[in-house]
Specification:
The protein is an alpha/beta fold. About 35% of the residues lie in helices and about 25% in strands.
Length: about 230
């Protein structure tokens, strides 16, 4: 039997790595990385010298076949992303699906998760918004369907959470400004767990004005949390 591990890694601060995650990455035969070069800092910090290779969303299907063959040979493999939990707005979902399909047919493998930090839950915890329900949109589409989602967020009774890049955060805030009521709370977290982490909280006008007056703060990736109606 082989083991396939989905391993959560820190979203910024390396000290958030769990003991179990470090041990698993040291013990497996191969680590699949979103980007091996980005993972080197993590490996060096924790003295992990396990063989690693790139696996990303557009990896060719033959690479999945190679991975399944290694598992069939009894190799233990771990999957990590650049930051946070793999498959949550990160590559890996198709691979996990194919492993489950192979497991149902012939493959003797256990699929295990080593939980870790995610920007999604960190932002929700920091938001101060109440309630147990939220809708997570991941990264919003660049063009097609983008405005439709903003209107959906504006009409939702649930908290809405999504990721946004530095290149689109200003347009994002402008779009939200056009559809949200003035009293709706918006919370933006950036650089969570890092040295320059920050939480910006207020109505959409206040949040938009903050970034207009502080353009130096527009850096990194953002998590946007919008209060429900």
């Amino acid at each position: 039997m082989s083991n396939f591990y989905i391993v959560g890694t820190p979203i910024g601060n390396l000290e958030d790595m769990t003991f179990r995650a470090v041990q698993v990455l040291k013990d497996v035969d191969l680590i699949l990385c979103e980007d091996v070069s980005n993972a080197q800092k993590l490996f060096k910090h924790f003295d992990i010298d396990t063989k690693a290779t790139n696996y990303f969303a557009n990896s060719r299907l033959s690479k999945i076949g190679d991975i399944l063959k290694l598992l069939e040979e009894g190799k233990n493999i771990a999957l990590i992303s650049d930051a946070g939990m793999p498959t949550i707005s990160d590559p890996g979902s198709l691979l996990i699906k194919k492993i489950y399909e192979a497991k149902a047919e012939y493959l003797d493998v256990e699929i295990k998760v080593i939980p870790g930090a995610t920007a999604l839950t960190a932002a929700f915890a920091l938001s101060g918004l109440t309630g147990n329900e939220f809708t997570f949109y991941g990264f919003l589409p660049h063009k097609k369907g983008r405005e439709t989602i903003f209107k959906e967020i504006a009409s939702s009774e649930r908290v809405s959470i999504f990721y946004e890049s530095v290149h689109r955060i200003e347009k994002c805030l402008e779009s939200l400004h056009q559809v949200l009521e003035e009293n709706r709370l918006v919370v933006i977290t950036k650089e969570s767990t890092k040295i320059h982490e920050e939480v910006v909280r207020g109505n959409i006008q206040e949040v938009k004005k903050y970034f207009e007056e502080n353009p130096d703060k527009i850096r990194g990736e953002f998590v946007v949390v919008v209060e429900g109606k």
